[in-house]
Specification:
Length: 315
């Protein structure tokens, strides 16, 4: 097991390297001048040239990338010229806010997906299954950014039950009780698509398992139906589902980029949007690197859990 996991970690290194190279190149191709974005349209050419020299913008792309990578390996993420503070400090603070949102959304998507998937499998061909299937299909088909705007319109503007955005009241300390109303809409927006996919996959697997001989044997022994469903069928459906959970965790983390912008959540997503608009390359690279690393680690964790539940799955 250790050997295979080390091999997968070794694969993760070139993946992260490729992501960093791709983002570096894309930021270079985006129209606009970072020096002009910082100094404004009234800046003189001399001031622009001086700032380009200071930020090493006149160096070739390969040289700038090599300098950045050398700094990353030494623990120096550089300084954000739009925020005027170290990149690592900005990324760390923003990412903690994103982890709160993504963590709650991921837990919510697991709960909703598992309950919907099991209910559809157990109540196959019933009205309940048809209603849930319609909701699941709508969840898969609906863009998250559009869903977020609809939820804001209904629950925040029309009904006034929840705030439209932000991460807490403007004044005073923010605890979990104060944070909860601000979490509901963005977490629900992030979780519905992932929950719908989990429900569809789990339904198919559960239906297959409930028709197997060991389930018939358990029923013949007189075991309670709840025990048969959760202890026998669901437990056997879980190991193949874990890699999908790793993918959906990455989707939730990546989806925070536009959901945070919609709900004005001060996380890594809104930071990346602002950094791209200001052409802050170091801040974009730092944000993308931490998100990509987390995604890789989540999928590795899913592989470990899958093997722990079913050692036959490791190859």
């Amino acid at each position: 097991m250790i050997r295979v996991l080390l091999q997968r970690l070794a694969i993760a290194v070139p993946v992260l390297l490729g992501v960093s190279i791709l983002v570096f190149a894309l930021m270079e191709w985006i129209p606009g001048d970072p020096a002009l974005a910082i100094l404004g349209p009234m800046a003189t050419e001399e001031n622009l040239q001086n700032l380009r020299e200071e930020l090493n913008l006149n160096e070739p792309l390969v040289v700038r990338y090599g300098t950045w990578m050398q700094g990353i390996l030494q623990g120096d993420w550089g300084t954000s010229y739009s925020m005027e503070r170290p990149v690592w400090e900005e990324v760390r603070e923003r990412f903690s806010a994103t982890l709160i949102l993504a963590g709650v959304a991921f837990i919510l998507c697991i709960l909703l997906g598992v309950l919907a998937g099991v209910a559809m499998a157990v109540r196959q061909n019933s009205l309940l299954e048809k209603v849930i299937m319609v909701a699941v299909t709508a969840g898969i088909s609906t863009p998250a950014f559009w869903l977020g705007l609809v939820l804001i319109q209904i629950f925040a503007i029309h009904l006034g039950w929840l705030p439209t955005g932000g991460m807490g009241p403007a004044m005073g300390e923010v605890g979990w009780m104060e944070l909860l109303p601000y979490l509901v809409l963005p977490a629900l927006t992030l979780s519905l698509v992932a929950a719908s996919i989990i429900a569809r996959i789990l339904r198919a697997r559960m239906i297959e398992l409930l028709r197997m001989d060991f389930i018939r044997t358990a029923r013949a022994k007189g075991l309670p139906e709840r025990t048969i469903i959760w202890r026998h069928a669901f437990r056997n459906a879980l190991p193949p589902l874990l890699p999908l959970l790793g993918i959906q965790a990455g989707y939730v983390l990546g989806g925070a980029v536009y959901v945070e912008s919609i709900f004005q959540w001060p996380g890594i997503g809104s930071m990346l949007v602002a950094a791209i608009q200001s052409r802050d390359l170091l801040l974009v690279q730092g944000g993308v690197l931490i998100v990509a690393t987390t995604y890789v680690l989540l999928n590795l964790l899913a592989d470990i859990l899958q093997h722990a539940l079913d050692p036959r799955t490791l190859s």
